[in-house]
């Protein structure tokens, strides 16, 4: 994937911020202990596309679930095992690579009713902050851009472990999930059912099954 976002979030000292209500220190969130083993993972990583899945699932006709994935994308990841807030990720997805297993449906998804791939060939995710929630769970916030609309999303990332594979690659596994309302990005097409409800749910679950390989600097 391309280059990490260089945008830095402003940090405001609550003691000097105008209009800030300073709470009792006892109410402040307590830091969650980090597993020391995370420190060994610090560094740049790249998603191994052949062993990963950037996918989604959406309710269809209110009675079943359609699943799909994007097969063409670039990635750049940096994990800081000592300071998770320094971790970051960037993903650039070519939307025309969508695969739901049905050619006609894929053509509709990349057409004007949904992604409009000719006008908007890529969607992107660029992280803006990362926090450790406890154990192997992290929360990553970032900007998701679809059809030139950018909105924040929050991912839950679960660390699955790391291993040195038989080919000498150091791998780390993560599962990431979030649910979005597709209409907020202009993906508003739908058909109403006679019995009530919609043919395609507005809620879409995004799923990232990631096998990352440590990048060689």
Sequence of strands across the biggest β-sheet: 1-4-5-7-8-9-10-11
Radius of gyration, whole Å = 20 Å
Q: For the residues shown, what is the average pLDDT? A: 85
Alpha-carbon distance between the two ends: 16 Å
Unreliable stretches covering 5 or more consecutive residues? 1-30
Strand content: over 45%
Query: What fraction, in percent, of the residue positions are helical?
Result: under 10%
Q: Describe the main β-sheet briefly.
A: 8 strands, antiparallel, barrel
Q: Give the overall silhouette.
A: elongated
β-strand number: 11
Please tell me about this protein's structure.
The chain has one helix at 103-109, and strands at 43-47, 53-60, 64-70, 73-79, 88-94, 98-99, 122-134, 137-146, 149-164, 170-181, 200-214. The protein has 217 residues and is mostly beta strands. An eight-stranded antiparallel beta barrel has the order 1-4-5-7-8-9-10-11. The longest helix is centred in the middle third of the chain and has 7 residues, at 103-109. The chain is elongated and about 55 Å long.
């Amino acid at each position: 994937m391309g280059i990490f976002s260089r945008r830095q979030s402003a940090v405001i000292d609550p003691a000097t911020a105008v209009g800030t209500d300073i709470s009792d220190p006892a109410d402040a969130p307590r830091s969650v202990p980090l597993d020391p083993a995370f420190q060994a993972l610090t560094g740049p990583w790249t998603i191994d596309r052949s062993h990963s899945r950037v996918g989604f699932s959406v309710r269809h006709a209110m009675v079943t679930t359609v699943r799909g994935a994007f097969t063409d994308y670039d990635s750049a990841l940096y994990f800081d095992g000592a300071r998770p807030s320094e971790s970051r990720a960037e993903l650039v997805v070519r939307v025309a690579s969508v695969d739901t297993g049905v050619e006609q449906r894929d053509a509709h998804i990349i057409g004007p009713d949904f992604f409009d791939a000719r006008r908007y060939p890529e969607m992107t995710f660029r992280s803006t902050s990362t926090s450790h929630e406890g154990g192997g769970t992290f929360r990553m916030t970032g900007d998701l851009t679809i059809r030139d609309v950018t909105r924040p999303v929050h991912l839950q990332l679960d660390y699955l472990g790391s291993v040195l594979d038989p080919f000498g690659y150091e791998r780390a596994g993560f599962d990431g999930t979030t649910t979005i309302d597709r209409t907020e990005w202009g993906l508003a097409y739908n058909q109403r059912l006679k019995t009530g409800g919609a043919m395609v749910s507005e809620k879409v679950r995004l799923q990232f099954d990631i096998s990352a390989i440590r990048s060689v600097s």
